[in-house]
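Reader question, answered in our methods column.
A reader sent in the components of a multi-part assembly and asked whether the whole thing could be modeled at once rather than chain by chain. We filled in our standard form and ran it. Here is what they sent:
COMPLEX SIZE: three components
ENTRIES:
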Amino acid sequence: MRPNYLVQPRSIMEVALFIPCYIDQFYPDVAKATLELLEKLGCKVSYPMDQTCCGQPMANSGFERDTDGTTRQFIETFKNFDYIVAPSGSCVLHIKEHQPAISEQEEEQKTVQSKVYELSEFLTDVLKVGTIEGSFPHKIGFHSSCHGQRGLRLSSSSELNEAPFSKAKDLFAGIKDLELVELSRKDECCGFGGTFAVSEEALSVQMGKDRLSDHLSHQVEIICGGDTSCLMHLQGIAERNNQPVKFMHLAEILNQAIS
Amino acid sequence: MSSKESILSSIRELNQVEKPLPDLPHFESAQDLVGTFQQSLQNNKGSVISALDLTDLVNSGAFPKVFSGSKLIPDLKTFELPERGTDLNDLDLAIIDGQLGVSENAAIWLEDENLGLRAVPFITQHLVIVLEKSKIVGNMHEAYSLIGLHHSGFGVFIAGPSKTADIEQSLVIGAHGAKSLRVVLV
Amino acid sequence: MSHPSQAANFLKDEKRAHWHDETLWFVREKRDIASKNIPEWEELRKLASGIKDHVLSKLDYYLEELEQKASANGIKVHWAKDAEEHNEIVWSILKEKKCKAIVKSKSILTEECHLNPYLEKRGVEVVDTDLGERIVQFLKQPPSHIVLPAIHLKKGDISEIFHEKLQTEKGNEDPVYLTHAARKHLRDKFMAAKVAITGVNFAIPETGEFVVCTNEGNADMGVHLADVHIACMGIEKIIPRRADLGIFLRLLARSATGQSITNYNSHFRSPAPGKEIHLILVDNGRTKQLKREKFKNSLKCIRCGACMNTCPIYRRSGGYSYGSTVPGPIGSILSPGIDVKKYSTLPFASTLCGSCSDVCPVKINIHEQLYEWRQEITKAQGWSTKGLSMKMANGIFTSPLAYKISGKLLRASLKNLPKSVIYNPLNAWGKNRDLPEVPKESFKEWYLKNRS
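And here is the structure of the entire assembly that came back:
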């Protein structure tokens, strides 16, 4: 079943979906939204079934050297695709920067690394969708994940003296009735940080609470982000404290907005 | 092996490849040098006064002990500097000439020849620096290219009165050095 | 104690921790405004980084040039391979001058060398003259921040200790009143000290001079009133040319406090007639760090403290949670080089958010080095992934083990286990956070059913 094309693509792009393991297990709706959105925007999408974890949790805990296996698996699974797209800045950054070098597969590895894109990056820079038309009548706060923002440079950093930009905001620009709030601290970390969330539990939770209160003080209905891991952390705190706010991945909002 | 040799040899044994030293480009600065300087000085909690104001200040009697080393404004009340800085603990007002000023931050360059004694601009309760308007440059790069490698045993950029924010980030003027800085532009 | 437990302690007083966070964020915001006023800011950072890279690549050459030019200027240059030798050199000068009381302006290096206790043991009164440092010295604490030593204290705390030490009015918390009381107290110390110690911000081989920056003027008050000035510098403080100061002085204060320049920027080239200047060049582990390819550019640091002000961890855990002389992100990449065991938790005290690297005026890739230290530490500590997974087992999600076992099993257990088991006190995730609702099928299962 093919959905309607809302945007005419220049040519059909063949895309492999890379779904981070925790999204696969806990947030299948984010994966479905990513799949449907890419299809609506004219891509031919496949989901290689052999994919596993990218190895990031191990590497960030100091065991990059033990991620040879997952890295080989990743290269094997994805090497034959033109584009690999994931709804996660964090996992994409890991593939690009923290995969251990795999001997005798250096060229293949480099090629794979250069073909991996975070979703908003792919839509903006490769598909060049420009403005997406649709409607989403809600007040949302956007949480920039640090790995997406400062790692992949998906948006400008408040630390740098550069012209402000945001790929996610560009994608929202054509969506009717979507109100995006300006946060007081534009791009502070939410405190997830992978294993940090448990090894530094007290700090992690405090950072999450602070991030939430920035969003809530601006009366947002929905906190949106490009990394479900950050959202999972924030949502966990919000629910524990009965704070009335919803969480949606960028893919879910875009997919809903144009349907 | 001496410590010097041991430090140097542990660097040398790394056989590092020399990385290039970047050239320093020219950076544009403010058009209105004097106006920007005044604004910067104000931001630093200093103020600009006129030569007339200075005379009034000196004659006001508010400053019992005044030292002037200024050549730009001659004939001001002054006294012979003692040999030791510690003998200046009761100095109320010091007036000295600056060599050049920087509009981006109101820093004023002073050398030994301006100070008489190095302690003067620090130990005095209040400081006045006389500066020629024509000696104001745009930024620190221009300042250093004017200063060049000229040898003075001591040189200092002073940009305002002594200040601190060490108590709960509240700005307080007059930590150890001069409690005020007035600049006379001539 | 490890960073996590120290941080948890700090956060117990939630209100005060929040105040600490806000206070430092305020400094970060001032820094943002100041840096954005300079159109060429990013170019200045690049230049500063390049100049420092160059210096480190021929540090031996520049150290010798510095010694030669400084000596020709009449400065006595000493070399110290470690903290002990540094302290001995200072002590030998004090003994020669029969000096029993000194004033000292801010120097992180002397903190690193533990100079104060060394001298105090030998009967020397050391007075730290920076207001913040004097406050923490009264309290027998180390600085909690390299630029703002007493940033962890509230004015009530300071009022109390000043009442005790300086007999200020009880309960008077006015910063102006307290600062002026310190001014009076420290003036007496300045008048009496025959020897003054300072740190060094920059040393210039080209001219054989060194530069000391302060806002209070305490370094200058000390050295110009004393007969002998001892300046202590790490060997990495060199920048080659005087003109390079134009770059670094524009970056330093803006990054540190958001000022356009520090108030007093003193260039010491020759001693005043009848006086002495001693310059001590200290290694204390720096050549070792230079040897570590992945970590050597941590030596570019100019000690502005911007990475502390921006760090969401530092702001919420305080300087003491790091247990190292230099706290915060930069400290977490410098300290493991000094003692990898003692400081093993520091590189993990980060979410790798990268704010430190973007704020750094000399572009040190701090967060990348934190990541690299993690790899080194697990090796050095002999930690295995199995050990870690045991440690993290209570984390459920983040456990590497969780990814190895079937996701289905995991989801099933989360669904079927009673809440009391999932949210037991050992489960660090669930202590203050709910777990996501467990979906009935994974994406993979859905895809198999619907799409293939």
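What stands out: The first strand of chain C starts at residue 76 and ends at 80. Chain C has a mean pLDDT of 92.
Send us your own complexes using the same form.
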